[in-house]
Amino acid sequence: LKLFGPTRRVQECVCVHATACGEAAPLLALLGLRMESGVVTFHISDDFSVSGAPNGGYLAHLAVRAARGVVQQPDLLSLSTRYLRKALENEDADFVVSPIAVGRSVSTVSVTLTQGGQPTSTYLMTFGNLGRQSGPSFLGTLLWPPDLPLPEDDSLIDVLQHGQPLNRSPGYAKATLHKHLSLLVRRDCSFARSAMSGRVSPSKELSYEGWCGFVDGRTLDLQTSIWLVDALPPPILTLMEIAWVPTLELTVRCFARPAPGSHRLKLRYTCTACVNGLLESETTVWDASGQLVARAGQLALLKLPAASRL
């Protein structure tokens, strides 16, 4: 991880070396430095991809980490992303960070991901402090958390670790992202039946509920929750064979930090509309207590296998 650009206290290059999962902001704070604007360089791994393209949630996760180096607030409140072109695996990417408004309670930052001098995706983020947020709370009935058995219940199955590829087209079969993820759903739901058989289902049920997390059992915070809302297979894969579902636009709204020690989140993923190959979907995650953590909406392209287009 390399950080460089002007700071409030010095005009010099600041270089920080960290692992792919490290955080730059705490080290900058320790040094007494704040980056006004600059560039964060990450190496884009090929270990979090679908059809040879780095997952959009993974890229957004990196962009949020880059932006956190210029704000005092600890929590992402909202994220609006536009994916302009396919990012390249196994290549470095520059995340150009530009503060727009930095305040005491809320700050807004823009980030542009570039490779080879070309913009690949853009991000507009607002940060705040969810730990200090107060006021009335209520949820409409559509946002009540799903009533799920406990993760260890035998009525659930991990469809990503034990199921067949939901899409058997050559490109989609190269997905590397899902080996890191765990998705527990009811064995008798249409999504599980399709996942276990590897075949599309005649069911028109374009939604599923379950427990999501990472295979390594890592503790989930708000940062990893942002990744999860765009990392899981869309329910429409149970209805038809699809070559790829590249995201055009992703919007995430965060409401609360997951309860401390959370290893899984409750999830509801729904495809709400598909018109002429434009797919709209919504993902909502709650912690085990039923606290709403985050919601995401996205617009994606539905790309069919070549044989289906003949």
UniProtKB/TrEMBL annotation:
<feature type="domain" description="Acyl-CoA thioesterase-like N-terminal HotDog">
    <location>
        <begin position="46"/>
        <end position="128"/>
    </location>
</feature>
<dbReference type="InterPro" id="IPR029069">
    <property type="entry name" value="HotDog_dom_sf"/>
</dbReference>
<dbReference type="InterPro" id="IPR042171">
    <property type="entry name" value="Acyl-CoA_hotdog"/>
</dbReference>
<dbReference type="Pfam" id="PF13622">
    <property type="entry name" value="4HBT_3"/>
</dbReference>
<dbReference type="InterPro" id="IPR049449">
    <property type="entry name" value="TesB_ACOT8-like_N"/>
</dbReference>
<dbReference type="InterPro" id="IPR052389">
    <property type="entry name" value="Sec_Metab_Biosynth-Assoc"/>
</dbReference>
<feature type="domain" description="Acyl-CoA thioesterase-like C-terminal">
    <location>
        <begin position="199"/>
        <end position="301"/>
    </location>
</feature>
<dbReference type="InterPro" id="IPR049450">
    <property type="entry name" value="ACOT8-like_C"/>
</dbReference>
<protein>
    <recommendedName>
        <fullName>Thioesterase domain-containing protein</fullName>
    </recommendedName>
</protein>
<dbReference type="Pfam" id="PF20789">
    <property type="entry name" value="4HBT_3C"/>
</dbReference>
